[in-house]
Design brief:
It comes from Brassica campestris. Pfam families: Aldedh. GO terms for molecular function: glyceraldehyde-3-phosphate dehydrogenase (NADP+) (non-phosphorylating) activity; lactaldehyde dehydrogenase (NAD+) activity. It catalyses: D-glyceraldehyde 3-phosphate + NADP(+) + H2O = (2R)-3-phosphoglycerate + NADPH + 2 H(+). The longest helix is centred in the first third of the chain and has 26 residues. The relative contact order is 0.13. It is built from 14 helices and 28 strands. Helix 3 runs antiparallel to helix 6. By secondary structure, it is α/β, with parallel strands linked by helices. Helix 13 links the parallel strand 22 and strand 23. It starts with 10 loop residues before the first strand and ends in a 9-residue tail after the last strand. It folds into two domains: 262 residues, Aldehyde Dehydrogenase, Chain A, domain 1, CATH 3.40.605; 176 residues, Aldehyde Dehydrogenase, Chain A, domain 2 (3-Layer(aba) Sandwich), CATH 3.40.309.10.
């Protein structure tokens, strides 16, 4: 169970502690933040409501610990990361349990997230040793007008303190995707977990604690965004911010100052279906891409743009598959579980009602019980409907019928988002042309959008984000180049 066994020390009565200077602590505020189980709509857990002064202390310790950590050999950093990964995977059950209860993620998927996170940490350790173990050697005479009198040595050095802010939907995986690159690169790490997902993150952080990382190097501070959010993101000690979430990231980017930013802020991922597409393959991918984890994924299929000539057939195939989706509690591994909060459910319902008022075709009856919304396919959606443009983050998928490929591309590119998209066709030449024309960070050909594997580059255009993720790109973002130039009194040429 969560908060038991090796995790006993992270819990104080019924309130989970925060992590600072290598110890689990209670906040001086004497307050806590409640975490509501999306399925039961009752308080499941409580975490510390940390203060700004506690943020200051965490940042001070992070700056100090980073100086020593930067002098730790690469192989030693990697060794500790491998150890943390092993502890995480060995204790997947209690962490997965908290994911089920905090964010209503199906039990099987929760276990998969924890195991995947351990694999990501280990991969990052190995990749970091390779990337950071190499530098460049440049000679001055390669530039016109110069003799060989200068030798330039370049290497990658850490930035300092990295602030990591993961989202609720993958709180463990998207936390370690920030933590592991930061640590292997020689940075210290301050984690501000989402409220829904905080307990899962605290359990994950304890695995790093048990691995033996130095005190102060990793911190996990919980609390209300309204009280410590801006204070964290605008803190002068922060040298880099890696954020995954919604449009809050736009506000952060405007306030952050001159530091590197890694932002993934959601998407309206379009699925363009051509007349020659394998419609059975398309239907399977629409179900996987649009309804897994109840559509609460940045890379979920959020709008289907299908050629009119095959639309009827495709809609019937998708309807048949939607009818087979199971709906219910996450403990029973149902396909569709409660969305994360009542406010999310209300927002989704608002999009549905707007589509109903404007004449969309409901392929299923709209049904909602609390935070649980049954899967819904909306056909004959038009561009004047909100759901054609807004991100529902729920199990509701709009279908727009198009008369040309250009119409589909134009709809995709008119969105303020540009995370991912996909195109289904048997003509690879058409697929490549469409891919080049789509204004998205990634285009999947004949498959639904997806973030992984975790070493692939992952980035968005427009309001979908800044910078690129993926193990290698994250390591590079969390370092800067340092050069040392050796000046020779006379030109020197090998074997000259």
């Amino acid at each position: 169970m969560a908060g038991t066994g090796i995790f006993t020390e992270i819990l104080d009565g019924e309130v989970y502690k925060y992590y600072s200077d290598g110890e689990w602590r209670t906040s001086s505020s004497g307050k806590s933040v409640a975490i509501v189980n999306p399925a039961t709509r009752k308080t499941q857990y409580k975490v510390q409501a940390c203060t700004q002064e506690e943020v200051n202390k965490v940042m001070e310790m992070a700056k100090s610990a980073q100086k020593s950590w930067a002098k730790t050999p690469l192989w030693k950093r990697a060794e500790l990361l491998h150890k943390a990964a092993a502890i995480l995977k060995d204790n997947k059950a209690p962490i997965a349990e908290s994911l089920v209860k905090e964010i209503a993620k199906p039990a099987k998927d929760s276990v998969t997230e924890v195991v995947r996170s351990g694999d990501l940490i280990s991969y990052c350790a190995e990749e970091g040793v390779r990337i950071l173990g190499e530098g460049k050697f440049l000679l001055s005479d390669s530039f016109p007008g110069n003799e060989r009198t200068k030798y330039c040595l370049t290497s990658k050095i850490p930035l300092g303190v990295v602030l990591a802010i993961p989202p609720f939907n993958y709180p463990v995986n998207l936390a370690v995707s920030k933590i592991a690159p930061a640590l292997i690169a020689g940075n210290s790490l301050v984690l501000k977990p989402p409220t829904q997902g905080a307990v899962s993150c605290l359990h994950m952080v304890h695995c790093f604690h048990l691995a033996g990382f130095p005190k102060g190097l990793i911190s996990c501070i919980t609390g209300k965004g309204s009280e410590i959010g801006d204070f964290l993101t605008m803190h002068p000690a922060v040298n880099c911010i890696s954020f995954t979430g919604g449009d809050t990231g736009i506000s952060i980017s405007k306030k952050a100052g001159m530091i590197p930013l890694q932002m993934e802020l959601g998407g309206k991922d379009a699925c363009i279906v051509l007349e020659d597409a394998d419609l059975d393959l398309v239907a399977s991918n629409i179900i996987k891409g649009g309804f897994s984890y109840s559509g609460q994924r940045c890379t979920a299929v959020k709008v289907v743009l299908v050629m009119e000539s095959v639309a009827d057939e495709l809609v019937e195939k998708v309807k048949a598959k939607v009818a087979k989706l199971t709906v219910g509690p996450p403990e029973e591994n149902c396909d569709i579980t409660a969305v994360v909060s009542e406010s999310s459910a209300n927002f989704i319902e608002g999009l549905v009602m707007d589509a109903k008022e404007k004449g969309a075709t409901f392929c299923q009856e709209y049904k909602r019980e609390g935070n649980l919304i049954w899967p819904l396919l909306l056909d004959n959606v038009r561009p004047d409907m909100r759901i054609a443009w807004e991100e529902p983050f729920g199990p509701v998928l709009p279908v727009l019928r198009i008369s040309s490929v250009e119409e589909g591309i134009n709809h995709c590119n008119a969105s303020n988002f540009g995370l991912q998209g996909c195109v289904f066709t048997k003509d690879i030449n058409k697929a490549m042309l469409i891919s080049d024309a789509m204004e998205t960070g990634t285009v999947q050909i004949n498959s639904a959008p997806a973030r992984g594997p975790d070493h692939f580059p992952f980035q968005g255009l427009k309001d979908s984000g800044i910078g690129s993720q993926g193990v290698t790109n994250s390591i590079n973002l969390m370092t800067k180049v340092k050069t040392t130039v050796i000046n020779l009194p006379t030109p020197s040429y090998s074997m000259g």
